Amino acid sequence: MAFINLEQDGMPKVSTQAKSWGYLMKARGGVDGMAIVARMVRRGLSVSAFLAAASLWFLPGSDASVDLVAMKGAVTIFLLMVTIFLWRSSQAETDAEIHVDFVREEVRLVDVVGGIERLRKAYSFADLGAMHVEDHALHLFTEDGRRLAVLELDPSVEAMLQP
Asked: What does the DSSP 8-state code read for residue 111?
């Protein structure tokens, strides 16, 4: 079983899964309590805006005269747009993943939004500034010397990576 340690240099914590093509590293970012509360408030406001839009038409005593229909329609459209905006902004943030693909010989930085993977950046092994095995770990660096990852390896995987 392999795991990754990216807590150095302010990098996010990640968990690693071994795949047939290499390693998949998912971010385990800390849960920010205020972010959760803000998302819940936005979701509650979106439901309230939707109920306000519906109540303009369905509450007893609501008038359907011609001059009010245009005004109520405009307010309803505005409230529905606010509902959609608040609901979409209340969704969870994107998750970051790092794919170390030994088959294609590349490292991919991927954003996952709602289960859909979107490639942010891909580095071929040849484009990496440095990638070496040291102390039972795979160290990945960019061309300008920034650390991408430190992947702790199984002894069998480490033997496979040695020249």
From this structure: E
Q: What's the pLDDT score for residue 162?
A: 61
Q: Where are the beta strands (DSSP E) in 6-162?
A: 14-18, 22-27, 95-101, 106-113, 116-124, 130-134, 137-141, 147-152
The residues, ordered by sequence, that sit 6+ positions from 114 with a Cβ below 8 Å of its Cβ are 91
Task: Output the six-digit token pair for 92.
Answer: 């969870």
pLDDT tens readout for residues 2-19: 333 444 444 444 455 667
* pLDDT per residue as tens digits for the range 53-87: 999 888 877 777 888 888 889 999 999 999 999 99
pTM above 0.85, yes or no: no
Angle at 92 between CA 86 and CA 95, to 5 degrees: 145
Tokens read off for 137: 């770990």
Closest to 107 measured CA to CA, from 90, 123, 89: 123
* Distance from the Cα of residue 151 to its chain's centroid: 21
Is 88 within 8 Å of 42 (Cβ atoms)? no
